[in-house]
Amino acid sequence: MPAMYHELLNQDLQPLGTAVTAWRRLAEACEETHDGAHARVSRPLIDAKWAGQSADTGLRAMAVTQSILTTASRNALLLAAVLDEASTRMHAARQRLRTAVAEAEDAGHRVGEDGTVAARPRQPSPDDLADQGRLLRESVEVAGYQSRIDEAVDEARDASARAGRALRELDPFTLDKEYGAQTTDEAAARLAEAHGIGISSDAIPTDRPPAEAARWWSGLTDLERDILVASYPTEIGALDGLPAETRDEANRAALDARLNDLRAREHDLGHHDRFVYDGLTRLQGILDERTGASDEQRLYLLGFGTQDDGRAIVAQGNPDTAAHTAVLVPGTGTDINGVGGQLVRTERMQEAAIRLGRGDVSVISWLDYDAPEISDSVITRGRANEAAPDLRDFTAGLKAAHAGADSHLTVVGHSYGSTAVGAADSGGGGLGADDIIVLGSPGMTVSNVEQLHISPECLWVGAASDDFVAHNLSGLSLGRSPQHFAFGDVREMPVDTTGHSAYWDRSSLSLTNMGRIIAGEPPLNESAGQ
């Protein structure tokens, strides 16, 4: 112990902090280089359908290089985490040691160069019971100080040993034997869990309310968050209540990994996987096209999935900082390959709301349920009921993640999407929306507005005069038509478009009024010359 005691007592731990910062910067540099290579080199070539033997060789080489950059980034983050954990524990051990030494010396005892505590010299009288009592108390006191010193040194020794073991495992060539991002993620996660870095998948509150997830995330250090995003991008990206920027970063990494996996099996994909692969490839292309966009036009990938016909949650504008946020729930026939069309709608909704100058606006396309095909599923409530709890969690997560004052929240349901919105708002604690807009609704799963959590004066119903779904399918099996007087005293949103899907036509009163409600303003009864 003597050498370890003296070293810890006088140890300068600042170099450890400097090393942590350096490794984090290296991780960021590798990740930025990876993203730049993908966006400016390989992605354009893939989009251009570059093919042939040269293309196969070239794209494979680029994939290997980009995967190695991902490996290097994760390795650097893990190294930083190991050193940070060691630094934290060493600082605490050194502080406990110095405190124990100072208190022992203040009590008049002597602490030797080897860390041994000796009681202050006394010549007690063998016949003086009080003197003997003081001696006994001092012996107990000395033993206490000695125990504290020994424990501090042992803690430092353990921190050093654990860090050493972890660092020996972090061979830069072990994480990427197959040059696959998914392999890298899994290996990084295993190392993070196995070597006491303080990161574990068990700690991720995947089944807890969004508010709890938000509190958990806010209690982590920046480095812990970085490691979690790098090691568990799928889990972190799907967690309602976390910041939009965090979920976007995690989901883009998970999307890269999923596409890499599908791309490796491209020639053997079945119908479903081929369908989803095409949709996710289009989604990634859309995201890449917006790289470097303005704050208003920036896209945030808040979720995606390969189940059913594919899933995607994409925000235009940051919902965490927006004064007004809208969530568009699409309806029948929407799938992963239709995300581009949904984003055209959200972009127009955002433009219409921003034009009013009431603050920043974020509009989100929420395709996180299995929207019905043109089949019997469109006239049943099953898909809407399945979507309801996830939609409630998502809107609760928006509120939990929002910075500062609450954002004004509008939920917009089109076609069967309004059925999903109705199911969500009628169950649990509702959607927590300030306004709900339903367009071309076939029913909201309820017979009266009083069965919803939204106030009647905040439920806006729009239907074109020739909207077949709203006027011919509504009120059959999905609940009473919200257009019907018996549904309750709801608010009409005036529209001037025709058909079932034209509500987003530019320069229309329909789109203008959507924007006004999203921005917290009442709708107009006639076009304002837009």
From TrEMBL:
Transmembrane segments: none annotated. Keywords: Coiled coil. Residues 142-169 form a coiled coil. Pfam families: Abhydrolase_8. It comes from the Bacteria. Residues 308-472 form the DUF1023 domain. InterPro entries: AB_hydrolase_fold, DUF1023. The keyword Coiled coil applies. This is DUF1023 domain-containing protein. The lineage of its organism: Bacteria, Bacillati, Actinomycetota, Actinomycetes, Kitasatosporales.
